[in-house]
Amino acid sequence: MGPLVYYCRWQGAKLRLRGRDDRFVWGQLVFSEGEKERIEPFRFDGFTFELTIGEEPDQRRLRLDDMGVSSPIEE
Predict the structure, then answer these.
(1) Domains in the chain, number
(2) pLDDT at residue 75 greater than cutoff 80
(3) I need a labelling partner for 69 at 20 to 30 A (CA). Which of 1, 12, 13, 57 fits?
(4) Model pTM score
């Protein structure tokens, strides 16, 4: 889960965990935009470091490295 925590730091997001199992962690990423907050659901795969953000059909998939730096996953 370390890469996810680093990703949140780099992005200025708060992490709200809603659940976890042996492989996945899920919840909400909360981004401050002035006086407003933008909340996006996420699911993080702790085995592959794949982060899925948003709802269908607008989901974004990212691969995180050990330090939380992201790169897009091409479909």
Answers:
(1) 1
(2) no
(3) 57
(4) 0.90
Residues 6 or more apart whose Cβ sits within 8 Å of residue 21: none
Longest CA span, the chain:
36
C-alpha distances out from residue 45 to 33, 35, 38, 50, 56, Å: 27, 31, 22, 5, 17
Contacts of residue 1, defined as CB under 8 A and 6 or more positions apart, other chains included, come to 25, 44, 46
Task: Judge whether 63 lies within some domain.
Answer: no
Would 65 be classed as within a structural domain?
no
Q: Which two tokens stand for residue 43?
A: 């699911």
Q: Tokens representing 69?
A: 């730096």
